[in-house]
Structures are given as structure tokens and as C-alpha cells.
Amino acid sequence: MPEIQTSEQLASAYEQYKQLLSTRLGTVVDDNTRMILVCGGTGCHASESEKIVENFQALIKKNGLEGKVFCSISGCFGFCEKGPIVKVFPDNVFYVQVKPEDASEIFEQHMLNGHKVKRLLYEDPILKEKMETAEDISFYKLQQRIALRNCGLINPEKIEEYIASGGYQSLAKVITQMSPQQVIEEMIASGLRGRGGAGFSTGKKWEFASKYASEEKFVICNADEGDPGAFMDRSIMEGDSHSVIEGMMIAGYAIGAQQGYVYIRAEYPLAVKRLEIAIRQARAMGLLGKNILGTGFNFDIAIRLGAGAFVCGEETALIHSLQGLRGEPATKPPFPAESGLWAKPTIVNNVETLANVPVIFQRGAEWFNSIGTKTSKGTKVFALAGKVNNVGLVEVPMGTTLREIIYDIGGGIKDGAEFKAAQTGGPSGGCIPRQYLDTPIDYESLQSIGSMMGSGGMIIMSDHDCMVNIARFYMEFIVEESCGRCVPCRIGNKRMLEILTNITEGRGTEEDLDELRSLSETIIDTSLCGLGQTAPNPVLSTLKYFFDEYEAHVKEKRCPAGVCQKLMHYKILPEKCIGCTSCARGCPVNCISGTVKQVHAIDQSKCIKCGACMTRCKFGAVVRE
Amino acid sequence: MTYTPNHSPCVEQNHPQFKELDQYIESLHLSPDDPRRKDTLIMTLHRAQEIFGYLPEIVQLHIAKKYSISHAEVSGVISFYNFFTTTPKGKIQVNVCLGTACYVNGANKVLQEFEQVLGIKSGQVTADGKFSIESLRCVGACGLAPVVTINHKVYGKVKPGDVREILEKFFIEEDKDVKEVSHA
Ligand SMILES: Cc1cc2nc3c(=O)[nH]c(=O)nc-3n(C[C@H](O)[C@H](O)[C@H](O)COP(=O)(O)O)c2cc1C
Ligand code: SF4
Ligand code: SF4
Ligand code: SF4
Ligand code: FES
Fold first, then answer.
1. Which stretches of chain A score pLDDT less than 50?
2. CATH second-level architecture of A33-141?
């Protein structure tokens, strides 16, 4: 790889590489050239997407089409549930759930004969029609991809393709034409707010850190992504690591830092690998290291792994962990901007926040500021999951409503069930009921309805989910993850969990509900860090919006959704059972006894209440009580 | 990387596993009077756990010495982080994701099923040391919920009824094959 030593050289590298993306971007359309992109994100990787690439490559070779048909991996298309995904350019055809053995059919029909393989096209869950191109797919229609702009477009393991997408030009512009002060002003003008949780102005944060004089300062990228059920940061790092690196460098220039760290969770090996590759390539090109683009600006980045502690996503805990200590939070102030890593001025920014930065300098603060709502600018990536038809990553302008996300993009609720609630903000957030489906979402509106933006996890729940059980689930998570430093968080949350467990097991009382409320208040008011201060939110929001479910558990010892295992059991009605044995064969724990043509019975002590027997019985003999 | 949870790491420090660890530590150029030397401690613990499969006391002592810090400091860090374990896990490590997306799609039933079939609880190892079960929180493949990983291989959309079939191939495989799988 040739070194790039000036911004002119970067510009000519762009000219040289930009044809790499021409088929994909449709800038040059040549009838015979085809680009096949295969998703190489964690989800699709798990379903053997690498094998698909291998098969295509062999077919290209066998048919002598090298130089005409190309195949490569890409970052995540966001539509993980339908993976592995294969996209063909320039036709923009989107194949879903592709198996390695399907490669030959796609190749023969599509590459050689120009026919789409209908069977592998995406079928709209509502229209029941096959969608011919990616643009037709409702999942993508309302999306505006800024942070995810390169995910599913470039090969994340090739820096040339990042450069071809205009990459590192913002860095060049910033360090050759702008003063740190101007960079900060531009960031403030853009209105970008942190995507990691609290939504603090990114420009302001940089400004604080820039004001403290120090020979040494640090930029930390928070890639701990602790909210279970959120995976946008992982996708960005797997699909477009360079934009995070470029964002960190611009931040470094703005505050006067020369060293960056990416603190990434150990559960994301593929993201770590892609980041390592990107850092290595950027160094080899001279874009990371000393005297970058001949300006005298030095910056380098190191990777540090987390080790499975949710609280380490909190910035002061993260800094402790980076220093090789137990990841316990510290009291603020001093804020990291004043005294952070090794007591030096430090900024901590989230992955998605940083991925937005290069675009702001490419397209201007004014453009960015024109997207979104009054207080929240730009887009937000949500990890849409749970009981929704289209599970995946969704990037929408701030101010989009829940209804648009769940029904227009998400394709509605799975299996024709009813929507019950959307959980946002993970263990710090709340459950939003149906009356707020039309609220435009931004930082403030979510807070006003008892939830929060958090990192962007959005779990959709249906009438088959029990809200008391969900509250208990989050509380269990909190109890496991509390670092134990302060009493209200350590003891208070444990007591909350005890009460919630009692309620879901039919031992709850009405007084318990009052105790939950008063404990919540104490924990919120007296905990040291954000983990404790927000821990009761899932309980409070479900108490507020789904009080009837709590009442049913407490007063009638009944779980309306039929979820709480202790409050229900499966039973075979002897008068209806004809002894077909279907249930017994389907029971995963073999707890149904009976022989052919005899009435069957369930051993309640072994039953795990999976419901398989009820689904399998065609005679309505299995009932839930 | 050899992975030998059956016999405890050899006391002789020129054992190949210690050599591998030392090679890594040497590449870090630790200096005993650098107050920042500990910033790589967690990376080293990760490496050690990869090499030994877990972090027994002898390994902890070894690392403490290399970093010129007390054993208490090392064990204090290890006990804080869920990822580190001081007892060996099974050769075949079943991890069931209990993140929110997996949970609302019935992951707890999948976990119960693994527990039933293997006859151990989450956090335990089978008597022959072959299997262990753990739960974890989100591997970021939520689109495939419920998700199970077995020795780093991801299984998606797992239903309780699938568990026997998934485990079948591990029951019959000889140890030799098992090793291959664990490196996949
Ligand atoms: C318990 C807890 C966990 C957190 N986890 C994360 C996380 O996983 N990722 C993240 O970016 N921020 C997390 N945060 C927020 C960080 O403390 C910090 O505000 C954020 O990284 C700042 O970056 P931003 O301004 O770009 O959002 C967490 C906060 C708390 C209190
Ligand atoms: S609030 Fe909880 S997690 Fe935060 S410092 Fe206190 S005990 Fe630790
Ligand atoms: S609910 Fe599941 S475990 Fe219980 S009897 Fe039916 S199939 Fe078996
Ligand atoms: S499936 Fe229904 S009818 Fe058949 S044995 Fe089971 S309970 Fe009886
Ligand atoms: S919640 Fe299981 S993979 Fe994300």
C-alpha cells in the first residue's frame, strides 16, 4: 500500500479507487459488470456467508468472468433476521436467506441469463408479494442511513473502498484547513448529541476537554454496547470501522489529543478483528501515526477489551477498567473532560456518535442540523427486535414515530399478535404502551413518557409478553450487574427483585406494589452512578402503564399473558385426547406418558411449560390453565 | 492453541502454555516502574484464559509477578469481571444468550432444555468435563434470537425442540473431532 503523505495524495487516491464502487453506486453502469455483495456481519457470518462468497468466487473463475463479475463480503445490511443476505448491483436485487448451495442457481439464472431468482426474493409480510429490488422493500423505505452509510456498501476489510466512498477527506479538511476551535464550533452547530445514552452535546463535550491545558489528552471510543438487545455499534464496527477511526481522529485534533482507545466488549470477536485490520491498514497508509498528511498532527489508536461487566459502559468505570482496575464508577465531578484516563483530560464518545462525525464535515453542519426535531438532530439507529416481523437495524431521522418504525419499517407484529409495548433504553429505560405509538421520538419525548433513548435498543412486545415478568427480567440483570459500591443499588435492587419474583410466582401482595414504588424513589435519589439511578425505570413504567397486569398477579394470582410459569400449567383433557402420541413425541423433555390410542398425561414436575404439546395437538386436548 | 482443562497446568514454568503466555507478555515491554503498566492487565488475562481455558491460582501468581503487583490485585480484577473464570469449563461450552431479544423469544426455555438434556445447571460442568453451560447477555446477533453459541459457533433461532439434535453431534464425536470444532 502506498503511503499517503499529503491531502493532494489522498485526493488522487480517491480518484484512483472510486471506480471500485461505481457499479455499486450506479455511477457507471455497464451491462455486463455485476457486483455481488454478501453480508459478512455476525448474524450472517453465523449462517455460513463466507461459504457463499467462496462458492461465487469459484463460479466466477469456472465461467471465466473475472473482471466482469465480482463478489465480496460487506458489512451488515441491517436486515439480520432474513440473513444471509446477498445483494446484486447494479440491479439492486436483494436475495434473502441464501444458503451456500443457492450460489449456483443465482449465478446461472441471474449472472448468466439475467433472470432474478424469484424464490430467494424477499416477500412482503403484508402484501404477500416478492419484492424485486431493495428500494421496494418497506424495511428500507423510511430509513435514512447516515451512521450506517457504508454498512452493506463497502468491503470493511479494504481501506481502498472506504477512501473510494470519500473516506478520510473530512479528516484532511479538518487538519489542513480548520483550527481546533472551528472544528468545535462546527460540531456544536451541527447539534449532534451523544448516541450512547445521555444525549449530551458532542461539540460541547469536546469544547470542555479542549479548554483544559495538558500535554496529554485522550479520546476514548465507548464500544462496550452493554444494552442486551442492541447491536448497532457492533454493526458499525464490523461494517465500517474506518468511519469510527476517522471520527476519533477529528475529535483528537479538536481537543488536542494524540492517543485514542477503543474499549470494546469481548463478546464481539468479529468487530475486534475488523477494527484491528482497519487500524493496521490506516497505519500502513500513514493515515494513523506521526505527522499525518504532513501537518504535524500525530494520532494513534489502541484496542482494549472489556470483560463482561455492564457497568463498564459508564464512562468513569470504563476509564478504571482501561487502567487495569476493577470497573467501579467514580463520583462526578470531576468529569473525564477535566480528569479522565490517567487523570488527564479525556473525552468518551459512543461508536455511533463518532461514526456521524466524518459526515458532518463532508456535508456540513447546516445539512446535519436540518434533519430531525427541534432538540434532537440527525438520525438514530435502533436495533429493532422482539415480536416484530422485520428484525434488524433501522436508521431513521429523529422525530420518526414508533408506529412508523414498528409497522411501516418493521412490518408489524409477528404471527398476527397485538402490539403491547415497545421497550427502549434497555435496563435504564421503560416500556412504552400503545397510546404513544404516534409520538415523534427524540431524547426529550422518550423521557417525558417514562423511557429514554439509551443506546437505541428497541424490543417490541406483544400480548404474549407479561410486563411484570419483563420488569423482573431487567431487575435480575441489574442485580447481576450492580458493582455493589453503594448500598441503595446493591441492597435496594435485590429487594426489588425479590418482590417481583414473588409477584410472578403468585406470592405477591398489594403492599408489595407500594414498596416497589418507594424503593424506586430511594434508589433513584441515592445511587452513585447512572446504573443505579435508572435501574427502577422498567419497574416504574410498567407499574404506570400496565398496573392491571400487576393487579391480576397479586389479587387473582393470574398471569394474563400466560407467561409466568408458576401461575399456569398445561393439562391434557382425557375426554378429548385420542392418543395420537403427537404431543409426547414433540415434548422436548419427554414428560408426557401414554401409549398409542391411550389417554396421555403430563408429568407436571418435569414440564418446562414450553407449550410445544399444545401446538402439536390437533384435537384441542391440551389446554393451558 | 492447546486447550487442556483435564490436567491442571504444569507447575514447571517452562511448560508450553506458560511459554506462550510469556511470549505475549514480553511483547508488551512491561517496565516495573511504569505506573501505567497495568493498562494491559485485562488483555493479558484474556490471553491467559484463551491459553489455559481458565485462570487458576498458579497462572494468577505468574501474571502478578510479571506485572510487579500483588496477587490480591490480580484476583480482585478477575473476580470483578464475569468473563473470567477460575474454574475449568467443559470442552464443549454451551452459552445460551439471555439478552432481551432472546429472552422475549423464549431463550429461558432453551436454557432449561439444555439443562435437562445435559443434567447440569447453568454454571456447571458435566462430571466427565465434556460439557458446560453458561448464560450470557447478547452476542449481538439479536436478529437470530434465540441465540446459542457452542465453542464460538453461533446457532440461531433455536427452539427447545432443537436442543437434542444440536447436541447429538457432540455426543458422538470423538475427542479429536471435538478439538477441531473448538477451533472452528
Ligand atoms: C450503566 C451505564 C452503562 C452505559 N453503557 C454504555 C455503553 O454500553 N455504550 C455507550 O456508548 N455508552 C454507555 N453509557 C454512557 C456512557 O457513560 C457515556 O455517557 C457515553 O459513552 C458518552 O458518549 P456519547 O456522548 O457519545 O453518547 C453507559 C452509562 C451507564 C450509566
Ligand atoms: S449505582 Fe450501582 S453500579 Fe453504580 S456505583 Fe453504585 S452500586 Fe455501583
Ligand atoms: S409444555 Fe412443553 S415440556 Fe410441558 S408437557 Fe408440553 S411439550 Fe412437554
Ligand atoms: S396430541 Fe393431543 S390427542 Fe394426541 S396424544 Fe397428545 S393430547 Fe392426545
Ligand atoms: S439478545 Fe441474544 S443476541 Fe442479542
1. none
2. 3-Layer(aba) Sandwich (3.40)
